[in-house]
Amino acid sequence: MEETQKKQTHYVISFITELLGTAILEFLGCMGCIFSFNLGPLLPAFAFGFAVMIPVQIFSHISSCHMNPAVSIAFLIFGDMEWKRCLIYIAAQYVGSLLGFGLLTVVTPKTEKMCLLRLKVGITPTQGFFLEFLCTVVLIIFVFGAIDSKNATYRDSFCLRLGLMISGLVFSVESFTGAGLNPARSFPPALFENIWKDHWIYEIAPILGMATGAILYRFVLKEDEKYSLNNWLAKR
User: Residue 5: what pLDDT?
Assistant: First the structure.
């Protein structure tokens, strides 16, 4: 009974930290995109890169600070998360993003379609889907490579390197899709504005992209995975 209570308490703490982390991400990231100052993708790239870096530094030792349903699903596929905890994380991430964006709409001037993700002129839904898909494959492979046990001596300043990697991805793809990369980040602006055109891309592409990346890393690149290609080739 005592062990069960400890486990339940840890779920509660994980829910709170994921909620707070995603709220900070949504609040700071979207706030940085309210005014463009004619800087193109540079401003949202650094806004979301640093917005990721801050909660990772604060909470990663408590709940890993995924802040992204696609990341949690990828960790489930990777074998580093149980399904119950994955569902708790995902619920916290959506609630946190709604709270963060809701607070932003209260404390900042009303801006039309604030932080709403849309495909840019000339980009087809198919192109947008694959851009979001491929960027999230890169994102999750970066994460798994960084936390790999063989990379243990190179984990210093992980939050900074993760933030800069996010900035690089956003800088590359923002001019085409707006750079969602996170279903929880994409959902609140669409809900508040009630604009759902092409929104399926920002919900489905990151999940499929990170699931693909998790499968690729676990069964091709990871050495200590029993059924990995790397392990199979090492025995030949």
Answer: 40
Confidence (pLDDT) at 4: 44
Q: How many CA atoms, within 13 angstroms, populate the side-chain half-sphere of residue 199?
A: 15
What tokens does 214 get? 């998790």
Residues spanned by the domain of 10: 2-234
> Which positions ≥6 away from 161 have C-beta within 8 Å?
146
Residue pair 30/113 in contact (Cβ under 8 Å)? The answer is no
How far does the chain reach from its first CA to its final CA, in angstroms? 48
Would you say residue 139 has pLDDT above 70? yes
Of 173, 189, 187, 97, nearest to 132 by C-alpha is 173
Count of domains for the chain = 1
Q: Identify the sign of the CA torsion 152, 157, 162, 164.
A: negative
pTM above 0.70?
Answer: yes
> Residue 205 sits in a domain of what CATH number?
1.20.1080.10
Tens of pLDDT along 78-97? Answer: 988 999 999 999 999 999 99
CA distance 73 to 81: 8
Q: Is-contact 116 196, C-beta < 8 A?
A: no
84-110 b/e (C-beta count within 10 Å ≥ 16 → b): ebbebbbebbbbbbbbbbeebbeeeee
DSSP letter for each residue of 54-105: HHHHHHHHHH----SHHHHHHHHHHTSS-HHHHHHHHHHHHHHHHHHHHHHH
